[in-house]
Amino acid sequence: MKIRTNPRRYLIRFATGAALAAVLSCAPLLAQISLSTVVDQAQRNSSAVKLAQADVNKAAATLSETKNVYIPNFVIGSSIGPPSIGFPSGQPSVANASMQSLAFSLQQGQYIRAAREGILAASLSLKDAREQVALDASTEYIELDTVQREIEAALQQQAFADRLLTIEQQRQEAGVDPLSEVLQARLAGAELKLKLMHLQARVAVLVSQLVALTGLPSASFKTDPASIPQIPEVKADQPAIRTAGIEAAQAEAQSHQFQAHGDELANKIRPLIGFGAIYNRDATSLNNYNLYFTRINPKTDQPEKFKADNFSAGFSIQIPIFDMNHKAKAQESAAEALRSKVEAEQAQRQNDVQIATLSGNIRELDAQAEVASLKQQIASEQLKAVETQLQLGNGSGSEPGAQPQLSPKAEQQARIDEKQKSIDAIDAGFDLTKARLSLLRALGHMDDWLREVLPNAQTQATATQ
Predict the structure, then answer these.
(1) CA distances from 261 to 320, 331, 345 (A)
(2) CATH value at residue 141
(3) Considering its fold, how many domains does the chain have in total?
């Protein structure tokens, strides 16, 4: 039976194809942004990185504070005031200067070691924060690239579904197919439209997340697939190294142990030696000291005024005998040290569990990606077979019982199925990529990925260290 042609159908198909071509051709006109730029801006804009950097600065200041107690300070002042009423209660100093410092302390050495470990812990925490931000930004960027490719395939799917609906409507008008086939084609088109809306909504969410991470304008987020390096295929049997987060926890525990040891020494009978010096420029012009304090010169038997310049210097030695305050402080520090040690051990165990979990997931995701790829290849070959049969026929002839010739709608159905299998393969590939990145970080090899993404920044960071 000959199917009637409808000029309106051709006009609809032409408009749909033109709209699809316009969408696909305009996409490259959007400003592209590379993965390296996203990761770099995310690390610069991250609140977690800024807070970690503030902790590094604080730790450096704490170390300087613990070491500078050995450097004498210098303070100047004055005690000028109106004449006192009655017996003077202050020193007649119009100008004074003093300096003091710590000369010897066993516990102070432990505090300095604790501060140095604190700097190491803060620096490792900063590195861990930068790695986590890089992982989040990379994952979201790759997912955005994945979803954008899925949208392109979904747009092509929708065009094929519109073509299928047109064919079914023509066949129904010609009396070849029932109305149910037309409704089925409409249902397929509606489902594809819903899926496309879901993908577009996912793109909007990913762009919002990347904008929050990087601070870049949302209009610039057109991904550049060429900027995504290949992810190293790490496995669980690969030797793992301690991650920056675990090393930071261990350094923090060591810092608390030094602090606890120092507080323990402060409660024992250990000398604490300090050095001090004082200079005073005294005068009695603004007070009544001469009325109460008069020195008689033994040689002349005459009263003498205060000596204007006075200086004293010496060492002070303190030996603690009984101090419940320092004892309680030592107990508090010991509890903090124990807590930090347990937290470091817990972080290591959690990381080991994460490695085991990710390894199992990767094996499963790898198999799923292979299955999805094979299905896509099969769908592609089936589409080629359908196209060949539509062009050349199936060679069955017109004898009774021969296989019927394929209709044009079979081609559209095959195209829709092939695109769906392509989308499934892209989705499975992203799940595998995400798991590999997470395992890369859990094994402590995140630097391998960052060297690929940020080669210049990594070189500068290494040179700085």
Answers:
(1) 16, 10, 21
(2) 1.20.1600.10
(3) 1
